Amino acid sequence: MNRRDFLHVMLLASAMPSTLLAMRTPVKYTKHSDIYFSSIDRECASRLLARLRRVQSIVGHGNFNIISFDYALKISKHYSSVGRFQKDELALFEKLFFIDASEYGFYGEKVVDNITQVFKKKEMLKVPHTGHFLYEGDAHAHYELIRRSIGDSIILTSGVRGVVKQMYLFLGKVFRVDGNLSLASNSLAPPGYSYHGIGDFDVGKVGFGARNFTTDFETTDEYKRLMDLGFVQIRYHKNNPYGVRYEPWHIKVSHL
Ligand SMILES: [Zn+2]
User: Fold this and answer.
1) What are 250's strand-pairing partners?
2) Alpha-carbon dihedral 22, 28, 31, 32, rounded to 10 degrees
3) Is 31's pLDDT higher than 80?
4) How far is the CA of 22 from the centre of ligand 1 (A)?
């Protein structure tokens, strides 16, 4: 807050009852009480998650990262092993996509606001041996530079993620924390809010597995070299006010 705004607030404060003053507190700094799935949503979400998993098994893990919502619908219509998305599953998908995530306590920016956004394969490169895609241009060049500077022991662990993939990851996370949407959104951006939709990517140490997505990654030489060489521009710092976990493995590319 600059000095003029500060003075303005102080002036208002002197004329305001304390309850109104409390309402002026910037919303992103308020502590949120956790929001959980209702039992109806939970049952529906478990069917939706299972169906998305079956879509993934049809299109393959790599393609699943970037397929659009409409393409997932098409697959569900054409493959009896997937089965059509039920009305309530689609309604829940839409609800989770369009809801303002600050209701859960997530205050990051919405970067993909079109549920049917197509993530164009021809604008991306599939990175060999990873199953992930990067946008041609800045993102891919940045990754190549990281590999040239650090070596083959650093690898892409997640690249472009479309709306369907982010929904799949988010639902999986919500179930792992007992239906707690707030807690889930603390460690994984809800669909539409992930910078993986517009260019950012994750890297890890080859052979380090799931520990690449924990603070253990900070103990690796690969991370230290990333830091020393200035590759890590942290998107969400420790104790950030947005309700998002600090992720030292996340490489910021997009210029937002
Ligand atoms: Zn990331």
Assistant:
1) 202
2) 110
3) no
4) 35
Counting the structural domains of the chain, the total is 2
Distance from Cα 91 to the centre of ligand 1, integer Å: 27
Among candidate residues 166, 162, 161, 128, the one with its CA nearest the CA of residue 147: 128
CA of 201 to the centre of ligand 1 (A): 5
Domain coverage including residue 22? 1-30
Q: Which contiguous run of DSSP H or E holds residue 201?
A: strand 201-205
Are 54 and 17 members of one domain? no
- pLDDT per residue as tens digits for the range 124-172: 999 999 999 999 999 999 999 999 999 999 999 999 999 999 999 999 9
Residues 54 and 87 in one domain: yes
- Say how many Å lie between the CA of residue 4 and the centre of ligand 1: 38
Residues 170 and 74 placed together within one structural domain of the fold: yes
Which pLDDT score, from 0 to 100, does residue 32 have? 64
Ligand 1 midpoint to CA 184 (Å) = 15
Q: How far apart are CA 144 and CA 156, in angstroms?
A: 10
